[in-house]
Amino acid sequence: MKIYTKKGDKGETSLIGGLRVKKSNVRIHAYGSVDELNSMVGLVRDSINDQVIKKQLIEIQDRLFTLGSQLAASPGSKMKLPEIKKEDILKLEGFIDEMDHSLPELKSFILPGGHISVSYCHLARTICRRAERWVIEVTEKEIVDAIIIEYLNRLSDYFFMLSRKISLDNNAEEIPWIAK
Q1: Residue 31 neighbours by CB under 8 Å, 6+ apart
Q2: Domain parsing of the chain, residue ranges
Q3: 47 in helix, strand or coil?
Q4: What secondary structure does DSSP assign to 118-144, as a single string?
Q5: pLDDT in tens, 42-64
Q6: Checking phi first, is residue 105 left (phi over 0); if not, alpha (psi -120 to 50) or beta?
Q7: pTM as predicted
Q8: Under CATH, to which class is 26-73+84-100+110-169 assigned?
């Protein structure tokens, strides 16, 4: 089977369910940003050695594929797709809380950076926020399960906390932002 179909050569693509839309459609931006985030999560995973965190990141990548499939479905599509569930958010919150217990108190904003893996986490966080904004824009025109926004919101928090954990684990300096 060839990877190319040539069906998108004129700037359109199909959603799950068959509806053809412009590749500039807000729904395409939303699930495209989720796909970009998933790739960034892979880069974070490849840059660390902590096997517990690697397992968490694989779980997150699986959830992002699920989330992306929901966003790629035509409104009203009858195809049965996997779903994001409240348990997925609770799992993220558990990961966050576990990291939080081992980290020093945060007293100011911190500048992204200090270690390559920390920087990757901050990139993942910002891509996640962009995906969240695109999904919110989709909701202005179409119905989207609110749990998708909730998951992305919590996931960006996860990447912030992961950046701090990786900083601590690698004795990297967290540089506070001092307004001038």
Answers
A1: 68, 71, 72
A2: 26-73+84-100+110-169
A3: coil
A4: HHHHHHHHHHHHHHHHHHHHHHTTS--
A5: 999 999 999 999 999 999 999 99
A6: beta
A7: 0.93
A8: mainly alpha
